Amino acid sequence: MSSETKQILTTDGIPLEVSLKKAEKKNKIRAFLLVAPLLLFLVITYIFPIGEMFTRSVDDRMVTNMLPKTFKAMEKWENLNELPPEEVYRGFYEDYKLLAENQQHGKLGQRLNKEKNGFNTITKKLFRQIKRKKIDESASLKEQINKIHKRWRNVEYWQAIKRTAPPYTAAKYLKGMDMYLAADGSIAQVDEDRRIHRILWLRTLEIAFFVTLFCFFMGYPIAHLLATLPMKYSNLLMICVLLPFWTSLLVRTASWMILLQQQGIVNDFFVMIGLVADDNRPEMMYNKVGTYVAMTQILLPFMVLPLYSVMKTISPSLMRAGKSLGGTPFVAFWKVYFPLTIPGIGAGCLLVFILAIGYYITPALVGGASGTLISNQIAFHMKTTLDWSFASAMGLMLLTGVLVIYWIYNKLVGVDNIKLG
Amino acid sequence: MALPSYTETRYRIWHYIYIAICSFVFFFLIAPLFVIFPLSFNAEEFLVFSEGMKNLDPDAFSLRWYKDMIYGTKNPWGLAAKNSFIIAIFATIGSIILGTLAALGLSSRHMPYKGIIMATLISPMIVPLIISGVAIFFFMAKAGLAATHTGIVLAHIILGTPFVVITVTATLSGFDHSVTRAAASLGSNPVNTFMKITLPLILPGVISGGLFAFVTSFDEVVVVLFLAGLENTTIPVQMWTGLREQLSPTILAVATCLILLSTLILVSAELLRRRSERLRGINR
User: Is B156 in contact with A83 (CB distance < 8 Å)?
Assistant: First the structure.
């Protein structure tokens, strides 16, 4: 064939290639328009708010906007180990006076108190002096303010103000990892007995890991049985997997609360077979045991279903071939069957792990103090301490972890290969 | 699964161990659900099997907790059930409409950026609920929709659409596109083709996605806890409060009703799946 073929024209006289491209473009737009409503809806109500969580978690503009003159003057403060020059005092005095007139000084005191303990007291003292008009604006403000309280003469308090100058801060993220920004700007660890968050992160990972492991060891045999049994039996047994899957999470948690309580059936059974004494029944709820047992049962269907859908496609003749070629059943299983189920194992494990790492309801009900996870901490800060920026920061740290796993999942199995039911 | 007669003893033993393990796991999965049934008919206030129940004494059983659920004074279940159904129905309708349209677009081979768009649409299913809860709460608070039914319905549409998108895309993957082309060549416009040809064929997938969306909404508690005021309480929220305060037998009566409901949903989902496979010509 020659490279110069005659251009084909449509009946309208337009080259076919152009006409096809036009039709293609029309189809593209049509397909996109179908997706657009949902995409737009999700972006507005869901994706943007997650972005907003980020700005909220790093936002520290409050003090920046409250003390503009102070921070401007602080640019001239050279030796940070000595008290700042008169201009800084004047700038701070003017800013603070304006805040006091607008009834905003309390917020500043509280915010600075978080940065350095004892700030609230000395700003209140300053406020009283201003209110009584005891400060002479024509004289040196540095001397007058320093006289109000000895802490104003401590350079650490001025350094603390300076630290709040940047409009953005990573402090919430550091706090989430039990670290903080020390006075000299370096990152320091909090005291060992106050490192609560790191324990929570580790516990979350540990529980998610072991729940995944338990689900795998329990899910693999039954998925295999379901895939190899004749249809009429496997359909019946499938109900055992699907009924819990469709049942309310709270119903299942409630049933575990009944089973695991001290006078519950599991303990009754242990007493009956003589494992424990009747007057010494172990506490199985409100600790890690409860969390493990309940979460494993609740997440097991998510392991079984992907495994089952993969095993269903493996032809039984492969195992027979393996055996007839001289392999024992174990060798045939290990060398032939098991490698073929790896995509299902990957899908099931990652699904269970992702779900377990963000679990909230079950740990909160059966977990007690030693079984709570990072999600419970986020909820606590959202509802009780109202530190929303900290809750956002921890949420995003968790989200980053999940997205990494999701990305791996997508590489291994592909999101469009998720099967439901 | 009978073993052939020539099986060696050790494999025979291994086989029985395997069956025993499987039986244990099936028991572990299903048994907890059946504890609730008898205890919800308990005549006493305690959540343990009384002596009378163990001896099958008819006096030890009663319907008092069911009566309490329906007629009890100051009971929250009536309002909660009403809210739950209203919210779940509207959320399901919303999810079905948005999700089906998106799935139709995504299944077209002309769709640009398919991977990233699919990942975005499915993300509410992957992102931990607590994070979705925080993000949606920020949006609803700003939009003035916190503590309203509308806000909760919108939140549940967000959480429910991924299921519809997935099931409908799966249904469309086995869809024979030549039938829509045939309709078009016979002079039908796209809307007409969709209503007369495509929709009836993908309907099982749409409904089963809708069932997922319904269950998601009906069972959802994390986001509702952030959004709901006293007026918007739902069944899961009431159960959550009840379970945290004290485990009363009334909760078990409610739980029994919920298990019956989920059995109903399971049966319909299963029937739909079979119908869908038959319609798409997949025979097993």
Answer: no
Reported ipTM = 0.86
* A125 and A217 belong to one structural domain: no
CB A254 within 8 A of CB B245: no
- Asked which of B49, B75, B101 is the last residue of a domain, the reply is B75
User: Do A5 and A83 fall into the same domain?
Assistant: no
Segment among A94-103, A278-287, B119-128, B254-263 with least mean pLDDT: A278-287
Query: Which among B200, B219, B199 has a CA at the least distance from the CA of B265?
Result: B219
Element (H, E) at A48: helix A48-58
Judge if B24 and B148 occupy the same domain.
no
Helices (H), A288-337: 288-311, 316-324, 329-332
Whether the pLDDT of residue A54 is over 60: the answer is yes
The partner residue sitting opposite B134, judged by closest CB among A48, A361, A391, is A391
- Taking only residues 126 to 185 of chain A, the set having a beta carbon closer than 8 angstroms to any beta carbon of chain B reads none
In a domain, B194, yes or no: yes
Q: Is residue A269 part of a domain?
A: yes
How far is it, in rounded angstroms, from Cα B60 to Cα B43?
5
Residue B10 to chain A, least CA–CA distance (Å): 11
A36/A76 same-domain check: no
Q: Which residues of B touch A254 (CB under 8 A)?
A: 36, 239, 243, 247, 251-252, 255
Residue B245: its chain A contacts at CB < 8 A? none
3-state secondary structure of A187: strand
CATH code of the domain in which A312 resides: 1.10.3720.10
A385 touches chain B (CB under 8 A): no
Residue ending a domain, among B56, B75, B94, is: B75
Same domain (yes/no): A105, A127 = yes
Q: Does the beta carbon of B32 lie under 8 angstroms from any beta carbon of chain A? A: yes
Beta-bridge partner residues of B61:
B42
Q: Report pLDDT for A240.
A: 85
CATH number of the domain enclosing B186: 1.10.3720.10
In the predicted structure, residue A1 carries a pLDDT above the cut 50: no
Number of domains present in the structure of chain A: 3
Chain B neighbors of A42, CB-CB under 8 A? 120-121, 123-124, 158, 161
Q: What is the pLDDT of residue A168?
A: 81
For the stretch A234-286, pLDDT in tens is 888 888 888 998 888 999 999 998 888 888 888 888 888 888 877 778 888 88
